[in-house]
Design goal:
about 350 residues, alpha+beta, 7-stranded mixed β-sheet, 8 helices, globular
């Protein structure tokens, strides 16, 4: 008599919070369900895409479901603008226009909606990008959590820049424009009342000016990525995978604010997997690294830019961290959602 394992019933599977976390579960959902349905899946999944037939134009879309709606350093309105502008910037593009769509739960105070929209409008004005179209839907109580925002952006790529997650090369230097972990820990602390929000604030801000500062380096800038969902760990793993290289970073070089480190120690989190909304990671040719650092540091949003690592031949797809004591540990792609509803 033979015993056989039952065949999994895929009809019983359900969507988990982790499917939206930007880690391995998200990749599985995209590869197995979303991309096959729309005929996609060729090449790396970038923060924004080149428009077919219009190679100078770049497009990105994003949805924001952060809870709470407001937090130290920002709110869902400014976050929506910054997130989409930054996704365009990571493909080397300057923002040209945005669309904004709202899904509002019945019962949301108009004063709160007015505050969010004022913040969104100010953020767009500060960037210098017009909101040219949009949509508003209201759903019944309980059908959404207060307010969700979707933004779509179109940008014009800098002629000298063509960064891609697939272009990292052995010998490249890995640069980081600022501290990590501030956004995710701020939102979580505010939501759960942990008290750390009195010491830190979200780093949400636009990064397109940093990218413009890097433009004179041209093709020496191989990869740009803003480490949002899944944090620095997810971004580095995606780049290592898509470029078929290894990445090694130095623990001592990664700037982690003390309040972020304390919050992560309390919650059992690795700062490398906590979301950011105001820093970028850049892979540049070694010979251009110092010029790139100088360019980043020339602007307030890049004043704390540092070199954190380098690209190696292999093992392909692997990210390692050289610890403070000189040992090495593997930095895995996050599996699922450790900090839900932070963007």
């Amino acid at each position: 008599m033979s015993i056989q394992c039952p065949t999994p019933n895929h009809e019983d599977e359900v969507v988990l919070l982790g499917h939206g976390a930007g880690g391995r579960l998200t990749a599985e959902l995209l590869d197995q369900l979303v991309l096959p349905a729309v005929g996609g899946g060729t090449g790396p999944l970038e923060d924004a895409a080149l428009l077919p037939g219009h190679p100078g134009l770049v497009m990105s879309t994003d949805s924001f479901v952060v809870s709470p709606l407001s937090f130290p350093g920002g709110d869902i309105g400014s976050l929506a603008v910054h997130g989409t502008v930054n996704d365009l910037a990571m493909r080397g593009a300057w923002p040209l226009a945005l669309s904004v769509s709202l899904i509002v739960e019945e019962g949301l105070p108009l004063a709160e909606l007015r505050s969010v929209m004022a913040s969104l409008g100010k953020a767009a004005q500060d960037v210098g990008v017009p909101v040219i179209t949009g949509d508003t839907k209201v759903v019944g109580r309980g059908a959404a959590d207060r307010l969700f925002i979707n933004t779509t952006g179109v940008g014009q790529r800098h002629e000298l820049l063509c960064p891609s997650a697939a272009l990292a090369r052995p010998g490249d230097v890995v640069l980081l424009s600022g501290p990590v972990g501030m956004h995710g820990t701020t939102v979580l602390s505010t939501r759960e009342g942990l008290g750390f929000e009195s010491d830190i604030a979200s780093d949400t801000r636009p990064l397109h000016r940093l990218v413009r500062a890097l433009a004179p380096l041209g093709r020496a800038v191989h990869v740009l990525r803003d480490p949002t969902r899944g944090g620095l760990a997810a971004s580095l793993n995606e780049i290592a995978r898509d470029s078929s290289v290894a990445v090694e970073i130095e623990e001592s070089a990664v700037p982690v604010p003390q309040a972020v480190a304390s919050a992560c120690d309390l919650l059992g989190l690795d700062p490398l997997v906590v979301a950011n909304e105001g820093c970028l990671v850049a892979f540049v040719e070694a010979g251009a690294a110092e010029r790139a650092l100088a360019a980043l540091r020339s602007l307030p949003e890049g004043a704390q830019a540092v070199r954190i690592g380098e690209v190696l031949e292999g093992p392909r797809g692997r990210v390692t961290l050289r610890t403070l004591v000189g040992a090495r540990r593997i930095v895995d792609m996050p599996l699922g959602e450790q900090l839900p509803r932070i963007c």
